[in-house]
Write a structure and sequence with these properties.
- The protein has 178 residues and is an alpha/beta fold.
- Helix content is 56%, strand content 13%.
- α1 crosses α7, α2 packs across α3 and α5 packs across α6.
- It is globular, with a radius of gyration of 16 Å.
- 33% of the residues are buried.
- The N terminus is likely disordered.
- The chain binds adenosine-5'-diphosphate (ADP), shikimate-3-phosphate (S3P) and magnesium ion.
- The site of shikimate-3-phosphate has 11 residues, from α1.
C-alpha cells in the first residue's frame, strides 16, 4: 500500500499572503491529489468576485459561504485545499478541518505578508490605511487558532513548496503507520 492510498485531505492554513494558494497547487500536483481553493470555490458558486461578496453580504455573509464550502470539502478526500486566512475563525470549521485531513500552518513573518499583499485589491480586509497593523491584529487573534489545529507548522519568510512536501510526506507516513 502506498501512503497516498489513504488520501485524506491536506489543508493549508495561515494568514493572507502566506502562500496557501500557491503552495497548495504544487503539493496537489506532486501528490496527484486534486487542488481546491476555498475562495475560488466560493467565487465559482456565486459567480461573483470575493470583494463583491464582501460588498453585498459583508464579512459575515462571506463566512457563511466559506463554512458551507469547508463542510462540503471535508466530506471529500484526495484534495489539497488552500483555505482562506479566516477559515479557522468558526469552531465548526476548525473541527471539520482537523477531523478530515492533515492541517499545515504556513507561518510567515508579518512584514513579508504585507509586502506580498500590498498591491492586491482582492483582499477586502487589507484595503485599509495601515495593512501591517491589520495583519498584526489578525495574527494575534488567529495564530493560536492555526496552531490549535495544525499537524505541521512551517515557519519562515521563504517557505518552499518542496520543503513543505518533504515534511508532509513524513507526516503522512507517520499517520499511516499509526
Ligand atoms: N513561498 C513563496 N515565496 C515567495 N512568494 C510567494 C510564496 N508563496 C506565495 N508567494 C506570493 O505571495 C502572494 C500571495 O500568495 P498566495 O498563494 O495567494 O497566498 P495566500 O493564498 O496564502 O493568501 C502571491 O503573489 C504569490 O506569488
Ligand atoms: O484572512 C481572511 O480573513 C481572508 C483571506 C482571504 O484568503 P487568502 O488567505 O487566501 O488571501 C479570503 O478568504 C478573504 O479575503 C478573507
Ligand atoms: Mg489564497
Amino acid at each position: 500500500m502506498n501512503i497516498a492510498d489513504e488520501k485524506r485531505n491536506v489543508y493549508l492554513v495561515g494568514l493572507m499572503g502566506a502562500g496557501k494558494t500557491t503552495i497548495a497547487k504544487v503539493l496537489a500536483r506532486r501528490l496527484a491529489y486534486q487542488f481546491v481553493d476555498s475562495d475560488h470555490e466560493i467565487e465559482a458558486r456565486t459567480g461573483v468576485s470575493l470583494p463583491t461578496i464582501f460588498e453585498i453580504e459583508g464579512e459575515q455573509g462571506f463566512r457563511k459561504r466559506e463554512a458551507q464550502v469547508i463542510a462540503d470539502l471535508a466530506s471529500l478526500s484526495g484534495r489539497v485545499v488552500a483555505t482562506g486566512g479566516g477559515a479557522v475563525l468558526r469552531p465548526e470549521n476548525r473541527e471539520r478541518l482537523r477531523g478530515s485531513g492533515l492541517v499545515i500552518y504556513l507561518d510567515v513573518p508579518l512584514q513579508t505578508l504585507c509586502e506580498r499583499t500590498r498591491h492586491d485589491k482582492n483582499r477586502p480586509l487589507l484595503q485599509v490605511s495601515d495593512p501591517l497593523l491589520k495583519l498584526k491584529e489578525l495574527h494575534e487573534q488567529r495564530d493560536p487558532l492555526y496552531r490549535s489545529i495544525a499537524d505541521l507548522v512551517v515557519s519562515g519568510s521563504r517557505i518552499s513548496a518542496q520543503a513543505v512536501l518533504q515534511l508532509l510526506v513524513k507526516e503522512m507516513e507517520k499517520t499511516w503507520k499509526r
